[in-house]
Write a structure and sequence with these properties.
It is built from 13 helices and 20 strands. By secondary structure, it is of the alpha+beta class. Among the domains are: about 210 residues, FAD/NAD(P)-binding domain, CATH 3.50.50; about 120 residues, Glutaredoxin. The chain has an eight-stranded mixed β-sheet, with helices on both faces. The chain has a four-stranded mixed β-sheet with strand order 18-17-19-20, covered by helices on one side. A three-stranded antiparallel β-sheet has the order 5-6-7. About 45% of the residues are buried.
């Protein structure tokens, strides 16, 4: 999250420094997939093409296979197309399998390419203090142990759950808290794909006599895998887990074996004065469904433009407060839905003979298939409505238009352009996406027969707000955006829409720039 935020700031012309106590290398793929919204953010950061070149092969299936073991019985299968075959009409950037061991270096390289971004590895934050004008951070060089003080206008803690910043702020948490004690076993095995008959799939989920217990994720489509144990058993070591997963012995090398606590919680605040938190420092999410990175990237994308606006002088005195009021409700939704999906997955029925070649075993397997079809396969929680259709409502910097908020827990995604939502994607005649129009300042989309907007432009100029007018034509575009004038924020979310310029354009500009 620190890298993503720094890239957003550096691209906008804001000087920033990253303090990182490690050396910057990543050896364990804690995350494995980027959502469509995550890829849209990567597109804005200029790294989407590079992300597509790494990770899970674009021609491999993304199936979910449910089985008793890799060499045991297949219980159910959800067939999902390969990335090369995944064309989604509502986004220019479908999801992508790019594990953290590949994604972090891509972010790091992009951050290093920006002259205004300074990265200091092997340097830790010891403490900080703030006043009305600045933050003074005391940092320690982990090699020389020398201390140094950095003075900055703002500090953002992207140092994870229990990091120095969030602990110093003393924020309380909302949410379930502990969900499960889980375990990740990251291993190398080129032989694994040849020991079973299930074929390539992105995910294999295992249910045996003790119930549903783990998930295997393919990392590179060759030899790298991560086995996630849902509820770790101290009686098992990594080798015993891998044999249970495969149903037989096979050749492998364990690269990492790590137990960790699966949590659901969100901090009570995202800001204290000039200090902010972002990503896992603000919310801990069960990784089932891949919403942790997705939510964190949304935080960074939101905070980057708001910090930029205030530093440049056109952001209002309440703009930075809108970071918490907009992003925290999204985190609360995402962590709860992630826990819900984990529980549904973990509670899929096993049975004492589900892996037996017997009438009782066959009955157990049929029961699993029925349960999967009736409950698991039909769960509408994780849809693009949740990933792309989330809405900042209520928001102090968006102007509601009286339309109904879209439901996120539906199977079919219908893009809308109501204030607070992400502006819908469609392809333009020049080959660009509408999403490519947004990024630096505000954009006023003006559709067929729209009225003059001089008064709105004058109001923006008066307050120093960067505002570009883009004329678009065609009944399909107008039908998608539903109003002849649509004001879109730098993060691509709709701030206001109507068919006419408001009677008080300056009040509108003050509202969307966060002036209280």
């Amino acid at each position: 999250m620190g890298l993503a935020l720094a890239i957003g700031l550096g691209m906008a012309g804001v000087r920033c420094t990253i303090i990182e106590k490690r050396d910057g290398s990543v050896h364990v793929p804690k995350m494995s997939t980027l959502s469509s919204r995550g890829m849209e953010i990567n597109r804005r950061l200029g790294i989407a093409d590079e992300v597509r070149r790494w990770g899970w092969p674009a021609t491999f299936p993304n199936d979910f296979v449910y089985c008793t073991s890799l060499t045991g019985y297949e219980l159910a299968r959800e067939r999902l197309p390969a990335y090369d075959d995944l064309a989604l009409p509502f986004t220019p950037e479908p999801p992508r399998g790019c594990a953290q061991i590949y994604y972090d270096p891509i972010l790091l390289e992009r951050a290093r390419s920006l002259p205004l971004v300074t990265i200091r590895h092997l340097t830790s934050l010891e403490s900080f203090a703030q006043d009305a004008q600045s933050v003074r951070a005391t940092i320690i060089d982990e090699t020389t142990k020398e201390r140094e003080i950095i003075t900055a206008r703002y500090l953002v803690g992207c140092d994870g759950a229990g990091g120095t910043v969030v602990r110093a702020l003393g924020f309380e948490y909302e949410g379930l808290g502990h969900v499960a004690q889980s375990r990740n076993i990251f291993f190398r095995s080129a032989a694994l794909i040849d020991v079973h008959d299930k074929g390539w799939a992105k995910f294999y989920r295992f249910t045996d006599t003790e119930g549903t217990w783990s998930e295997l994720i393919g990392i590179d489509g060759k030899e790298l895998w991560r086995l996630t144990v849902l509820n770790a058993d101290p009686a098992y070591d990594g080798h015993r887990y891998l044999r249970r997963m495969a149903g037989r012995d096979f050749a492998y090398e364990i690269l990492s074996d790590m137990e960790w606590e699966r949590r659901e919680r969100v901090t009570e605040h995202y800001r204290d004065g000039r200090v902010f938190i972002c990503g896992d420092a603000a919310h801990e999410t069960s990784p089932t469904g891949g919403m942790g990175l997705h939510t964190g990237l949304g935080d960074a994308f939101d905070l980057a433009w708001k910090l930029t606006a205030v530093i440049e002088g056109w952001g209002g005195n309440g703009l930075l407060d809108s970071y918490e009021s907009e992003r925290r409700p999204i985190a609360l939704d995402n962590v709860r839905v992630s826990t819900g999906l984990f529980n549904i997955f973990a509670e899929m029925p096993g049975g004492p003979e589900i892996d037996a070649d017997s009438p009782q075993g066959q009955a157990s397997r049929l029961g699993f298939a029925r349960e999967y079809e009736q409950h698991h396969a039909q769960v509408p929680q994780f849809t693009e409505n949740l990933r792309l259709g989330y809405c900042y409502e209520p928001s102090p910097i968006c102007v509601p238009d009286g339309t109904q908020r879209p439901a996120v827990e539906t199977k079919t995604f219908v893009p809308v352009a109501r204030p607070g939502t992400r502006a819908p994607h469609t392809w333009l005649a020049d080959g660009r996406s509408t999403l490519d129009l947004f990024g630096r300042g505000f954009v006023l989309l003006r559709f067929d027969d729209a009225p003059p907007v001089d008064a709105l432009l004058d109001a923006a100029t008066q307050r120093g707000v960067p505002l570009e007018v883009v004329d678009l034509a065609g009944p399909e575009l107008l039908g998608l955006y539903e109003r002849r004038l649509v004001l879109v924020r730098p993060d691509g979310h709709v701030a206001w829409r109507d068919d006419v310029v408001p009677s008080d354009p300056l009040a509108l500009i003050n509202r969307v720039r966060g002036e209280r």
